[in-house]
Amino acid sequence: MKKVLVTGSTRGIGKAVHDELSKTFEVFSVARNEELLKSLNSKDYCICDFSIDIKPLMDFIHKYQFDIIINNAGEYIYGGIEDMTSEQISSIYNTNLISPVKIISSAVPYMKEKMWGRIINIGSISGVMGEAYASLYSSTKSGLIGLTKALALELAEYNITVNTINPGWVDTDLGNNSIEDSDFSKEEILGCIPQKRFVAPSEIAGLVKYLISDDAKGITGQSINLCAGLSVGC
Description:
This protein is of the alpha/beta class. It has nine helices and seven strands, in the order βαβαβαβαβααβαααβ. It has a seven-stranded parallel beta sheet with strand order 3-2-1-4-5-6-7, sandwiched between helices. The protein is globular and about 50 Å long. The relative contact order is 0.15.
């Protein structure tokens, strides 16, 4: 059975992905909160704070040699660029971009040996369109898109696919908290979404399940917007 690593698996999108893939695969979880990790029906778990040190996760990857990587863990910061501290900048870049790069770097040798692998990065529509007062978040998610395209070329001959899913507004704690941090109400945000709704985490989990299937083996290097039409315009 294929082994799947899901980061940020205790809440929101990550938990939806974890629960969906657990029906078919051996799923291993990564998050900061051990109590929440224990509540999941995971094969095993790793406690790790990406903003500080991911060495425990590197050891975890070497131990289990995963076939499928879902880079979902993420951090959001709202505010003007001039107000961002060095600590905030380091934290969000370590969590959203540098850690996924290190995770992929550690996992790819094992995928190459097997001549099979699937890597899914959870990006954001903010990395496609940009978001004022979320420049750090937008730039990290945009970085995932560039990483995806380059790695898809680099790894194609090894039957390893790499794709990014860019959710729009998602009905999660992170999504709702980001509304509270912004200058807009939920009603105003819904008014700018063509379908007038937030995306459900289960929709993203369903797309992840498809992209790691053999039916999607020809899809690689893609940046797929799952945003209820937000990327098209109001």
